[in-house]
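Entry 14. Ran structure prediction on the chain below.
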Amino acid sequence: MGSAKNKASASRKARIEEMRRAEKARERRNRILTITASVVIVGGLVAGGAYLISTQSEDDSSTSSAAQKGKFTTGKDGVRTWNTKLTQNHVSGDVKYAMNPPVGGDHNQVWMNCDGDVYTKELSKTNAVHSLEHGAVWVTYNSKASDADVKALADKVEKTPYSLMSPVEDQKDPIMLSAWGAQRAVTSAKDPNVNTFFEKYVQGEQTPEKGAACTGGLAK
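Output, structure tokens:
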């Protein structure tokens, strides 16, 4: 039995290292593409003047009331999943989410850093939702959670790429775990459902943009 646990642990470590390597490779490619695009844009301005074409498919309004139509359905494992497709538009203002904490929907174009980042103050939910789109698990808690549980969960998050943690005082339960389209409450940091949720949803099949960066975003 100990051997099986060691193999599972080794497999998880290998998976995390692979995600880290993939993310670093993507960041290098993105830097190259950004530099190339900048050169092209500057050259175009010098040669032909300013000719701006707006082809945005995203909503850049200052606020968004794009409440998600749908509801949670609870599975036998206790995980609640959103039963309709969640929108993924980038917006520059607030979003009125239909669930708290939100598990998806329109969001800010900048994600919260989620490479095992623990935040001690409440985050902009529109930035955190973008992290979920990248495959992160978001651990949230309110003042009813014990200090011991908060510390233990923070320790776990800090060791887990594609995860983040922050307080959400107005959430229903003391401790909640959220991923894109999925959510559940847990009784404590020792609840075995914590590990089960992380195993399934960190870069899980629900991820709209699997492998997208969890660094290089907003740090707070």
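Strands lie at 63-64, 72-74, 80-82, 94-95, 115-118, 137-141, 163-167, 175-179, 182-185. Will compare against last week's run tomorrow.
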